[in-house]
């Protein structure tokens, strides 16, 4: 039963107040994209055992989507940040590098 | 307007705390840039100001609460809500904003009594021991969304959607039954 | 024989006797008794039968680890099977019956299994019952299944009430023994918010029974003072009768509180706590291990600590002559306690070659015979102990001496309770000296920030002596110094097969030393394999009592060290918790939220037959007295199509979308173009998911230059609103668009039928004429005094208005329509009439024509897909090869040749079979109804090349060989020209 | 090595000598340098693949390598339900193949897997669900899957403890598969393992794959904690960890790993003879041969490799089952556990070739893994042996995600007006 901090509300809430939304930082491909890119966008998932970037919605709170970096093997949460970005914040990357030196990057 | 009735017509129960539907209540949702000067001005006209993160401010029988980074909820009397909604809409007309009267979409409840916190401790994943006055907490009460704040001495107010008002009252009633005191 | 002693018993109140029954026999105990102590005090030694061999069984333990003494408790709707007598507080009028025997506890036919024990070793069923093949199903399996289970199944619904509650703290202390109390004091004094949970009704744990001195006081006095200090601290919450069931991720602890058990005073029976703790300190103590010797399960063979507990806590003597069997010093305390109670200890049998510690010397000094290097070859007796045969521990079981006794107190050492530590990943380390697994402080379970979630103190941490336990908390304490134990897993060490076949490990499941050795021999080497093959540790004590013994024997059999074998996984709950508590308030009316429209009560009063739609409940139809649902639906349809009908459409989603980029946004969301919709106009729109499949539909209205109102399906409002916000927040966050879900702000009524306009004109206040309010437009105004928004849209093909009024006026408006409509023959209609009418018009229904695999192109909705737009959600997906495959099934109408109604969901068969031998198909029915207007069956379906095959007849095999023949037709069955809506 | 047959007579014979003569059920060899086929994952699916490779295709130079202990993943932690009442043709085909193999599996393996076709029903608790199940019955009848629609009173006769008049969701009938049921999950893995071992295959436990060796887009072997192993073909059959192995081989799968939980009550005397699924309220329950009520629900919603789920799902499912079976309220939960399941993009499994030549994947069974074991093994063995899918696996290829050719069983996903 996870707890995550909503970066908009500033409260730490439990999983039951949130709705999970799958892998974060997926780039949308639309008309004109290759079959491969489109398949990758919709289906191919990193699904790492380790550091994972994912989407959550503060569904029972402010209703906003935010992103989280979390270890799927230990459930440690490295940080949360607003969804209006195409890549994780630099300071979060630094923090993860310290905690998981061999994690291999977010892409 | 005399034909308007709230979801539960003010039904209430008294156990170790009193739980009651608050009756018709005006509520206006304001989606806008919360740093907007026009918004601040409009609220000032009501004796209020733009609340900070999670804050609820009360003056002259009206309250305004921070609901999200781009949403406020103005709580007022039911009858003045259509007019206020209209005037706020006009005040923000020049900005990207959306003001909607949601008075009919919601139901409001009060939980009062010395042990009022204990009623909500059974329903909401919120630490009531540290839950301060002046804060609006949007959360979950059992299986539905709820927004709650300390609306008076030994009183909490809870807002939920109108369609689940009877469910909410059921939750509050069973959680406030005598014999169910926690401490 | 067991009995109640004349004096003593620190937990009982002799002034408060309590009556209860066991197997119908009246008995008496005292307030403060557990059911176990009361039964034992009343002389009841045999309490049940084991699962497999139906062997007679009595109490082994005095706490949560008890595997045998489970009873059926209570009767009728308060009957509860498998109730553990050792953790049940005695109450007036308790009715207990023993389990797993027929016809009686004393004489049990099932005990024949014990006679044939040799033929029923671990896993025998995997090797047998396979031939003849039919016999498995008809003979063997039914027998196995009928012999399943222990307690009787309840037969009635539970009348009791359960609650849940949330709490938060810095430190949760699990266990109210001296270690827990000491830890709580330390944390509380440091200003931490502390909760202490103790599973029993008493503070202090074992210390008051075991003796010693804490801070110069008797343990009992120290405990009382500590509890008093803690009670006075505002930052401390002390909870008795609350078992910490599990420690879950991110410090989420589940506490199981017994509140009003057996009370009829309004209290809930149980309360389930969900505590978010910064740190959980487990002070959960340790559990004594039995020793595996032949007959160690005969009623009267008990843990040494349990014997001591029954004597000291409840003044119950388990026997007059108690032989103590041990491999450690601690069990000598039992001998001393037995002697102090005026009973006899014929001998202490110590497996160690020497016993020279303080406690053995004390026992010798008190005249108790201590036999070292000895073990028990065999316990004599069947339904109760009559004696023990003593042998050399190092030997094979040759009897040296037989000692008469009626109770055996055994101790094989102690195992720390590491459950909570382990639940979410804390690791263990094997302590060779103490022969125990204990928490490895360097590898704790970790929390949300990677921090340690738990710490362990006291016996749970492997500290078994009072001095060491209190020293950890910085409090001086003394007790007798104990010499090291000697690990003893089998007694005697060289026990022959015959003895090992009766040396029990898992008492409830009848797993013996021989079974574990068999598993090892057969290659079930993993501890999990052995567990599952033998069922060791799978009983309702979940291996608390003797899992360690089992895995030690497994390790020995495989010739590998115990830590290599490891343990099985510790899973919540620590001890079983009621499903009622897991459910809390969510039962009956509160099982799930029921969403009600403002008119819900009216429908209910009119006897509506309900249909669940998401969490809403909508009237399916309004049957009149004596009317079938079918008849009611037909009546509602005919009335609506000839007069006027009313539908409560309040559940339809209503989402306002506003902003400079709203048009652009809706163009992405819908397959159609919405940005070019004129203000005041309505347009039917389709939404697809990114995978191309149709996900929702509804009418979009342009309210003003920068504001649109999107109607969604009833079940879809929250989903679609969330979908909109997802795209706005996560993909197009620079677009200026706000949305608001106003579904519940309005009550919405569809006024449908040829007389609809007249009805509204009678209400008055707005011009609803064809000219002023043409089809697919809307107007705002006041209708019959109600502020209203009127949409000229139709889902039935009739003249139709959908009218939204503020929800708080919904009921009044609905009633006003009914009153005003009386002269026009107005009637409400339900969802089924709605469905039939839309099908008569060939309109698709999300959830009927669509099932998550259908794209708009399949449904002939190409007209609603903009060709001008470069992009919309789902567009790229619809370009994939399978989506453009001409062989996709397409929507058509279907008419049976004989006018009958096609069954729901039937398939049209094609010639031949596919490569997997399945009959080929070429279509299926998606909606099928009886049309009371056409007086025949009508249907829609998806058919291979359907639109090009008009007039062809397909075969639809249905039940019992019946084949329906249906012709492919246009899906619009009624008013094909669409004249009726546009008047 | 020849299999020493199990029988009642063998047990009786051994009883006389205190069962001292039983041999190992399977051997525990060190890995050889090379195998024709290496199967990663000694769960039910991996072992069944090996078994049918040997039995049907005559390929026995096979190693099944396992990170932990055989059968210790989802095979040993599911709710043991067997059914084949699926809607879509490809699903019905492979699950029915599995179910029909289960019928004779004990005799085939000479190991009693306790297949118990006690009957399985799915309650219909809304009009929409009822239509969906009726459609399934018609589809099943054409697919050769024996199911039928039964009325509420027939439901009550089969399951006296069910509350068919629930105030919230009355039972409108049920989809009934008389030959659905349960089996002993561990025994399935053990039975296959014993049979594979007897064919001379190597089952190598406590051997974790740490790398996949490829050359020119073709597999060469695997690196493991017990050394390097060469192989002609590699089958990845590691539910829960499919993405991890795929990453080693250099490709991604349309899979997310999520926790699925189950729990049991304390054992009680028999009170429910069939398996009941109440999908509208997300719960299912059966009674084991030990008397425990075995309960499961839906998966958690986020990626998770811990084999622990979130508590609130336990509450949600339990409350649904108390509504459905009111008598269970006073029963007590004995044990709760979790497994990690592969959830694919269309919630249907993958049996497929991969971007790497001679690597094959069998994954994505989601919550349907146990019931499909024999059919999955059968189809996978064919795919590995021939290098191309046979009819059972043909529709379950990875290419379907690119083509938009999904196998979607969640027909109840739509909602009505």
Explain what this protein looks like in three dimensions:
The complex is a heterotetramer of chains A (107), B (183), C (983) and D (417). By secondary structure, chain A is of the alpha+beta class. Chain A is built from two helices and six strands; from the N terminus they run E-E-E-H-E-E-E-H. Chain A starts with a strand and ends in an 8-residue tail after the last helix. Chain B is an alpha+beta fold and 183 residues long. Chain B has two domains: 12-23 and 105-175, 2-Layer Sandwich (Gyrase A, domain 2), CATH 3.30.1360; 26-103, Alpha-Beta Plaits (2-Layer Sandwich). Chain B is built from four helices and eleven strands; from the N terminus they run βββαβββαββαβββα. Chain B has a six-stranded antiparallel beta sheet with strand order 1-2-8-11-10-9. The termini of chain B are far apart. Chain D is an alpha/beta fold and 417 residues long. Chain D has helices at residues 8-15, 44-57, 89-103, 105-109, 127-143, 152-158, 185-198, 242-249, 311-324, 369-386, 399-403; strands at 34-40, 62-65, 81-82, 120-124, 148-150, 173-177, 181-182, 202-204, 209-215, 218-224, 227-236, 255-265, 275-278, 283-287, 293-303, 332-344, 350-353, 359-363. In chain D, the strands form three sheets. In chain D, strands 1, 2, 8, 9, 10, 11, 17 and 18 form an eight-stranded mixed beta sheet that branches. In chain D, strands 5-6-4-13-14-15-12-16 form an eight-stranded mixed beta sheet, sandwiched between helices. In chain D, helix 2 packs parallel to helix 7 and helix 2 (44-57) packs across helix 10 (369-386). Mean pLDDT of chain D is 95; it is low at 412-417. The chains are: A alpha+beta (107), B alpha+beta (183), C alpha+beta (983), D alpha/beta (417). The interface between C and D is large, with 129 and 122 residues. Strand 33 (577-578) of chain C pairs antiparallel with strand 16 (332-344) of chain D.
